[in-house]
């Protein structure tokens, strides 16, 4: 169950609780109804017992029942309702008993006590019997008579079963209504979680800088902690940028001193030593520039936004003044309403590096296109140059790596573009195509 959503978990638990509660309620109601029916049956049998005793008369052969009870079941054989009177060794019984008698307990009720028993009846039925011992008046010969009235328990069970059958559809309808109400309650109650998701998505896309304070009291502490975490992250990044700047300034003087020492050695004829020092100094400078660029891209503001068309125009304006840019035929297909969640300077640096690389290797045409794809802005830069060997495609995105060491540059451009994309939550893909070498930069949009 760990893979289920929170809403589905709560819905399943709530639905189970509703079903169990209503099942328990149905069982309790069925039990209470059965008890009520049994008490009602006892009252009726007590009344019928009084009717039987009231109908006793003294006949030629002794006691007889002059007036039968009004319920027709007493007259129908095995009709389910029976009466019996034991007096002086004689037994009077209802027609419904036919040739059977009620197997009453041996111990007789004392005085006017009324007892309730469960006894065996005709055809192995179970009967609910009520009995008492009455003292007969002189007109009925005196003495005592034991009178009983019994009812087939199957009738009570049938009444309870009918009640349950009538009750089940209503309980089912009530269960559906309660589950529907619970689902609606969950949808409304969990709405702040959806708002949190939307807000965090906006934070990641650069459309917001903080969670804000308009949250229910249960969610507000979480939103406050996220805002505090964002503030701490921004402070850490600011400190990292400051330290990176201090590092850059601190290394500039030693690097310049190394280059000066290399020039002195070259002037004194120690060319190999000078070249070695310059190579080490260049490697150090590349690493420093690389790390400074990485820190700056990671430190981009959460609310950053850059217009793609404007940035492409700025990059083209700069590159068109360079020798490689002047010889290229630039073609553009960039809508004017596309924005990305990237700092404008970082986007310009990434596009500048990719466009400069395309202009350097193109035979004649460089194409820059942009379109929105599933919430991202895809910027594609294609040059009609010879492309890159497939086994070396991965190498050119590594820091300081250049396939053509004869051309100027430090090999950081494509790697920095990849860092910009990764820091913004996008990606850079490089591949060859029939048109030439293709660089695809996917960045999160701001719509």
From TrEMBL:
One Pfam family matching this protein: HATPase_c
Transmembrane portions of the chain: 167-190
UniProt xrefs under Gene3D superfamilies: 1.10.287.130, Histidine kinase-like ATPase, C-terminal domain (3.30.565.10)
MF GO annotations: kinase activity
Keyword Ion transport part of the UniProt annotation: no
N-terminal signal peptide: none
Predominant place of localization: membrane
PROSITE patterns (alphabetical): HIS_KIN (PS50109)
Domain Histidine kinase: 246-447
Reactions this protein catalyses: ATP + protein L-histidine = ADP + protein N-phospho-L-histidine
EC number(s) on file: 2.7.13.3
SMART domains: HATPase_c
Enzyme superclass (EC): transferase
UniProt-annotated location(s): Membrane
Keyword list, A-Z: Kinase, Membrane, Phosphoprotein, Transferase, Transmembrane, Transmembrane helix
Coiled coil regions, renumbered to chain: none
Protein's name according to its UniProt entry: histidine kinase
Organism in which the protein naturally occurs: Aquamicrobium terrae
């Amino acid at each position: 169950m760990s893979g289920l959503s929170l809403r589905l978990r709560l819905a399943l638990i709530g639905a189970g609780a509703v079903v169990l509660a209503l099942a328990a309620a149905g069982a309790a109601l069925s039990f209470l109804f059965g008890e009520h029916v049994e008490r009602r049956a006892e009252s009726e049998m007590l009344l019928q017992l009084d009717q039987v005793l009231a109908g006793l008369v003294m006949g030629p052969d002794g006691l007889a029942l002059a007036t039968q009870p009004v319920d027709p079941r007493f007259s129908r054989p095995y009709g389910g309702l029976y009466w019996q009177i034991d007096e002086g060794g004689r037994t009077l019984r209802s027609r419904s008993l036919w040739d059977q008698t009620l197997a009453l307990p041996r111990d007789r009720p004392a005085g006017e006590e009324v007892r309730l028993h469960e006894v065996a009846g005709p055809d192995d039925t179970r009967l609910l019997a009520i009995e008492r011992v009455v003292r007969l008046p002189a007109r009925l010969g005196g003495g005592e008579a034991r009178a009983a009235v019994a009812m087939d328990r199957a009738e009570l069970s049938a009444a309870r079963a009918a009640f349950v059958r009538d009750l089940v559809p209503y309980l089912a309808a009530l269960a559906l209504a309660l589950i529907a109400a619970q689902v609606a309650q969950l949808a409304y109650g969990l709405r702040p979680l959806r708002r949190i998701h939307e807000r965090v998505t906006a934070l990641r896309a650069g459309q917001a800088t903080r969670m804000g304070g308009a949250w229910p009291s249960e969610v507000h502490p979480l939103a406050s902690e996220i805002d505090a975490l964002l503030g701490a992250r921004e402070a850490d990044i600011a400190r990292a940028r400051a330290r990176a700047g201090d590092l850059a300034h601190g290394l500039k003087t030693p690097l310049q001193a190394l280059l000066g020492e290399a020039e002195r050695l070259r002037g004194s004829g120690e060319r190999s030593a000078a070249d070695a020092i310059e190579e080490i100094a260049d490697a150090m400078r590349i690493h420093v520039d690389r790390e400074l660029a990485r820190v700056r891209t990671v430190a981009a503001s959460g609310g950053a936004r850059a217009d793609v068309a404007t940035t492409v125009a700025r990059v083209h304006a700069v590159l068109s003044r360079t020798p490689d840019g002047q010889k290229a035929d630039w073609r553009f297909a960039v809508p004017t309403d596309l924005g990305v969640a990237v700092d404008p300077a970082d986007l310009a640096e990434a596009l500048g590096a990719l466009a400069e690389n395309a202009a350097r290797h193109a035979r004649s045409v460089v194409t820059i296109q942009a379109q929105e794809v599933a919430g991202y802005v895809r910027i594609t830069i294609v040059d009609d140059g010879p492309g890159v060997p497939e086994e070396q495609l991965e190498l050119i995105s590594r820091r300081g790596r250049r396939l053509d060491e004869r051309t100027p540059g430090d090999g950081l451009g494509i790697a920095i573009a990849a860092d910009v994309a990764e820091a913004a939550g996008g990606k850079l893909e490089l591949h060859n195509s029939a048109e030439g070498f293709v660089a695809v930069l996917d960045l999160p949009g701001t719509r």
